[in-house]
Design brief:
Elements (H helix, E strand, L loop, with lengths): L11 H23 L1 H23 L2 H11 L15 H9 L17 E2 L2 E2 L6 H5 L3 H6 L2 H31 L15 E7 L2 E7 L6 E5 L5 E3 L17
Antiparallel strand pairs: 1-2, 3-4, 4-5, 5-6
Length: 238
């Protein structure tokens, strides 16, 4: 029987980033192979990713997130989140021996989402450190603290590796974007709700905070990951 709801094709932008990442791979692979320090940074990043994964598995977060991603439409791994991944971050996945998917495994969600969770090793900072309100309520505080500590190490080590790769690519005239690490890139998301809009800021000092205008017309930060209905959103400009 034919599938009545086939997976949506990935947007053209991310396909271009995937192709560019594959073109950069031989150059970056040569840099890593010829430089012991860069190779160590890559190994340290992989160890940090494994450590984060272990902490998430121990507290049950991996199972919760994988189930939510497949059954909740518009959750964390929403469609077009793949557009956050630029060629440099995608190339790091190739250096970590992670394949780059071309087809959606879970319809209506991020291109990189699989039935067991994210199919990438090196992930965008929002994908790493966001915790939804449900998990904050059900996970033990100490376990969540350990997970966040592991995430912090993963993001710090990954950001340093990414910055170094961008500098080297720039020196060779092959930098596809800028010399600033993508993990520090400031991104703004707008959540559309039934009664209005809110602004969720990703990156910078207000990472994960939702802002809205209160009755006194000033900016009021809410708890990270908490949304509030409002009719007159205020976008944060950097």
């Amino acid at each position: 029987m034919p599938d009545l709801f086939p997976p949506d094709p990935p947007p053209t932008a991310v396909l271009g980033n995937l192709r560019q990442a594959e073109r950069l791979y031989p150059l970056c692979q040569e840099e890593v192979a010829s430089d012991p320090e860069l190779k160590k940074r890559l190994e340290d990043y992989q160890k940090a990713i494994i450590r984060s994964r272990q902490q998430m598995e121990q507290c049950g977060m991996v199972q919760y997130c994988a189930a939510c991603a497949q059954n909740v439409f518009g959750g964390c791994c929403f469609q077009e989140a793949e557009n956050w991944y630029d060629p440099v971050l995608l190339n790091i996945n190739l250096l970590l021996k992670s394949s780059l998917p071309r087809e959606r495994e879970v319809p209506g969600h991020c291109l990189f989402l699989g039935v067991q969770g994210c199919r990438l090793e090196a992930r965008y900072f929002f994908c790493v450190n966001y915790v939804c309100p449900y998990l904050e309520q059900i996970l033990p505080p100490l376990a969540l603290q350990e997970v966040r500590r592991a995430w912090g190490t993963e993001l710090a080590v990954g950001s340093a590796l990414e910055a170094e790769l961008r500098r080297r690519l720039a020196r060779k005239g092959r930098d596809p974007a800028s010399t600033r690490p993508l993990t520090e890139k400031k991104t703004r998301l707008t959540l559309r709700m039934k009664t209005g809009k809110v602004s969720l800021v990703s990156g910078g000092p207000w990472n994960g905070f939702v802002f809205h205008r209160n009755h006194r017309s000033d900016l009021k930060p809410l708890r990270p990951g908490r949304a509030s209905f409002c009719s007159c959103p205020q976008r944060i400009r950097w």
